[in-house]
TrEMBL record, chain A:
Biased composition (Basic and acidic residues): 96-110
Protein name listed in UniProt: creatine kinase
Protein family: Belongs to the ATP:guanido phosphotransferase family.
Source domain of life: Eukaryota
Catalytic activity, reaction form: creatine + ATP = N-phosphocreatine + ADP + H(+)
Keyword Metal-binding: no
EC number in record: 2.7.3.2
Organism per entry: Collichthys lucidus (Big head croaker)
Residue intervals of the Phosphagen kinase C-terminal domain: 125-367
Domain Phosphagen kinase N-terminal: 11-98
Binding-site residues, ATP: 128-132, 191, 236, 292-296, 320-325
Single GO MF descriptor: creatine kinase activity
Record key words, sorted: ATP-binding, Kinase, Nucleotide-binding, Transferase
Species classification: Eukaryota, Metazoa, Chordata, Craniata, Vertebrata
TrEMBL record, chain B:
Entry's family note: Belongs to the ATP:guanido phosphotransferase family.
The keyword Calcium appears for this protein: no
Protein name: Creatine kinase S-type, mitochondrial
Organism: Collichthys lucidus
GO cellular component, one term: mitochondrial inner membrane
Domain Phosphagen kinase N-terminal: from-to ranges: 42-129
Enzyme class: transferase
Amino acid sequence: MPFGNTHNKLKMNYSSEQEYPDLSQHNNHMAKVLTPEMYANLRDKETPSGFTLDDVIQTGVDNPGHPFIMTVGCVAGDEETYEVFKDLLDPVIEDRHGGYKPSDKHKTDLNSENLQGGDDLDPNYVLSSRVRTGRSIRGFCLPPHCSRGERRAIENLSIESLDLLDGDLKGKYYALKNMTEEEQQQLIDDHFLFDKPVSPLLLASGMARDWPDGRGIWHNDNKTFLVWVNEEDHLRVISMQKGGNMREVFTRFCTGLTKIEGLFKERGHEFMWNEHLGYVLTCPSNLGTGLRAGVHVKLPNVSKHEKFGEILKRLRLQKRGTGGVDTAAVGGVFDISNADRLGFSEVELVQMVVDGVNLLVDMEKRLEAGESIDDLMPEQK
Amino acid sequence: MANSFTRMISGRNTAVMLASIGAGTLVSGYLLSDSTAAADRKRVYPPSADYPDLRKHNNCMASAMTPTIYAHLRDKTTPNNWTLDQCIQTGVDNPGHPFIKTVGMVAGDEESYEVFDELFDPVIKDRHNGYDPRTMKHHTDLDASKITSGMFDERYVLSSRVRTGRSIRGLSLPPACTRSERREVERVVVTALSGLKGELAGRYYSLGEMSEREQQKLIDDHFLFDKPVSPLLTAAGMARDWPDARGIWHNNEKNFLIWINEEDHTRIISMEKGGNMKRVFERFCRGLKQVEQLIQERGWEFMWNERLGYILTCPSNLGTGLRAGVHIRLPFLSRDPRFKKILDNLRLQKRGTGGVDTAASGDTVDISNLDRLGRSEVELVQIVIDGVNYLIECEKRLERGQDIKIPSPIPQFRK
């Protein structure tokens, strides 16, 4: 909640034991890490904008999680959250991001020239290619905590900057609260429209406040480059197209991001970034690159192989249904993307996806022909 | 019944007294300290930058809100540091419905109604059909012996029920309370309830700790409440930390029931099958008085003042917080085109038998009082009794093929 510390001082009238949340039924990263001692040490702290420990963890308290799916259970309200509450967030980050230490440095590489290949994923199997990330504007609070004024300022800045994109990236902004019926239907048909979050994970953190004020979608005329404004992060940037030319998708992604960053800088604003955490986003799971590069790919045979899960794990890839996170695959078509976000650069992650998907398609072809794939089994990356 | 001690305390005096108990020397309505970055943000974002977009909204808060009011109130806080934005968040997030005008704001603590009275007062006036908290007084009366004709014809009335809410003074309300405050509410109330004897003796079931069997039993008895799913409630923050410190208490006879830390600190319900509304109300008053005594013995009291009566989370429940109702079969009358007008004039409201926002099933409807504030409990229950008796008379006449009359409207507030 903005402009205050949500009566943190009132809570100090009660002891830490009295305030400590009941996490006995919980299975998320926050619950694993937050001991009563840690709670006692952190509960009187707040970031300069007034974000408190309870604000950070509320979503994790309200959503105990699932025995099989380990959610993060905490969010940042501003850039400083990751500093002020590092005692909690560092171990959460380490757990979530495969052992990433507080002293580790993250490398950013948005030079698409450094990608090898990637322009010829077999379109008979790879139906579409997509790269997404998020960006936060330094100096503003993040979606769980921002006020209406801040959110609108972010929207205005974004519109101003995006309006100046030209060439292949030239496009238009559609504010969620102003769009016409036709515009809305078109955005739905293009699979661009995002809706008010319904997931309790997001609602409990306060990200859906004041919906749809300050939210909108920008996309280029070619419909290959898309920006979501003020959904789960300040900006979500998406490059996508049908077919298997991931290289082209990534090149547009890098070019677009770099241009947008330049346009924001011209207006005196930069993205939240530091050399330890990379790009700073609302959810600790998206730190580093915030990047998910993925394809929709037909793998009816490989997906039934007993070693499918193991293969993906070794390739550092993750499978989802084609509806996105938390959906099931339909007709043997899977969404395959990088599992990592932090500790690898953008180029490295996209390379893993390109190489991994090429291998999976080779395996699919082998299995189609009734041949074995044992010699193709990859090493752990 | 609120005793003379509670009645001495009202309005702004309450806020100051509570502030000195609860939060050092802070006074109600103080401005946030200028030394924080939060204060800087306020300077960069004047109230006009934060003013909510209410153009598509149809709730009492949106009707009453103006840029001037917002500018006056945005930077104020209650002694517990609760803000206007937090009061109105649910109304901003839930634009409402063209036909159903929701309230659109909640209180975070007792002082909210004082510190933000510039917005609460017109909302209360709108919701309570003209009750003006600035000039009028609310009268509390829990003397059930004054009730007459409180036994309904059970060929028509299937069940009778009275409910209200009570808040524990000194503790924040569900939208705002910390975990320890919520646990404190649970502790205070459960301790008091364990002192109830005789017909009222019962036991407590904590939501987080009940067994599967206990849960099933409470569902079968229609006693169990669940985590709120209504966006009206979740947007107000009332479901935080669920199910911590939530629970249900009921007496062994299963006709006196208390919900703890759902939408209010407590919801108190007296109910039984059949038409003996007088007995339901007697038990209601007796139970309430005993609970009040038991918490007072330990130095606690209910939130109450003579401007607004009993203080609850939602402004719609101020005053008595009372809904007295019956499930009644009215196959002829419910189909008569004059039914709505008859109900309006009797100051009654119909709902489906699933409660608010449900439709009637078959010929059975839920009939209860429309008003909450501006008339006492005894007056409202009598209005329900007289009204329901009138409805039964109409039904009988229609059964016999006789005509019915629309009664003249009864005045809304006591003189």
